[in-house]
Amino acid sequence: MFRSLSKTSLRNLFGFFAIAFETNGQTGATNLPNEATSFRANSTNALPRPRPPNCGKIIDKSSVGHALGSFFLYDYAGLDANGQMLYYKADGSKVTQDALVYADRKYVGSVLPNATYGLSFGMNYKNFDVTVDTYGTLGSKVYNGKKAQRFSGENIEDSIASDFWTAQNTGASNPAAFNQVPVASTYYLESGNFFRVNNITVGYKLPEFTKYISYARVYFNAINPFIVKKFSGFSPELS
Fold first, then answer.
1. Phi/psi at 186 (5° precision)
2. Which residues contact 118 (CB under 8 A, 6 or more apart)?
3. How confident is the model at residue 233 (pLDDT cuts 50, 70, 90)?
C-alpha cells in the first residue's frame, strides 16, 4: 500500500501559522504473508533456506505450515551451574549439546520479513530544501554467525573475549569458554527489525548572480547516516 502526500502549504494544516513553506512526501507499506502450504514433487530444493547452511534444512513435506526461509535450530535453554550452554530436547528436558539429536531441532522464525515500509519526505522554504528517505522491515530473524565464530582467526564479538562466564562473573553475557564448535541454535538468532534513514539531503538555491547561469544549487548529502536496530551484528539488512 502506498500513499502520496502532495505539496501542501502548512498554512492549510495549521491555520495559526503564517509562514510559507511546502512539504511533499510518500509513504509505503507492504504486508508479506509467508507460509508453505504444499510442494510439487522434485521442486523443494530450489526454495530459499537460511544461511549459514547448518541453520536450515532441505525443505520437504514437514515444512508445510511453516514460513519459507525458516530457521531450523536447536532451542537454547540457558546456562548450567558451570556456565555451559544448555538446549531443550524435543521432550522438554535440558541437555548440553553432546546429548542433542537431529530430531531436537525445530522451526524458529524466518529470514523473510512480515512487512516492509518506507517514508520519503521533502520540504521547501524560500531557497532551502530538505529531503529525507527512509526504509524498514518487521518480523524477520537474523542469525548472528559472527557471534558464533570461535576458531580459524575470525573476528569475534568483543563481549566474547571480555565478558564470559567464570565463577567470579556468573552474570556474564556469554557462556564459559569452551573448545567445541557450538551448534546452530536460537542463542544466535536475533531480531531483524530495523528502521534506516537511507538519505538526507539539504540544499540551497543560490540567488542569480550572472546572466550566464540561470540556476545554481549547492547541497550536502548524507547516505545511510543512521539505523535503529536490535541486531547486535554489523547489519540486519542481509542478503
1. -70, -10
2. 27, 28, 29, 133, 134, 135, 136
3. confident
* Contact call for residues 103 and 20 (beta carbons, < 8 A): no
pLDDT of residue 18: 37
Distances in Å between the Cα of 160 and the Cα atoms of 39, 144, 156, 220 are 42, 13, 7, 39
Residue partners of 173: CB distance under 8 A and separation at least 6: 159, 163
Give the model's pLDDT for residue 9: 37
Q: What residues contact 166, with CB distance under 8 A and at least 6 apart?
A: 83, 172, 176
Cα-to-chain-centroid distance, residue 136: 8
Q: Are 45 and 58 in contact (CB under 8 A)?
A: yes
The residue with cell 501559522 is: 17
Q: Which pLDDT does position 204 carry in this prediction?
A: 96
Q: What are phi and psi of 106, to 5 degrees?
A: -150, 160
What average pLDDT does range 79-92 have in this prediction?
Answer: 96
Question: How many CB atoms within 10 Å of residue 5?
Answer: 14
- The confidence score (pLDDT) of residue 22 equals 55
What is the residue-averaged pLDDT of the chain?
80
Phi, psi of 214 (to 5 degrees): -85, -25
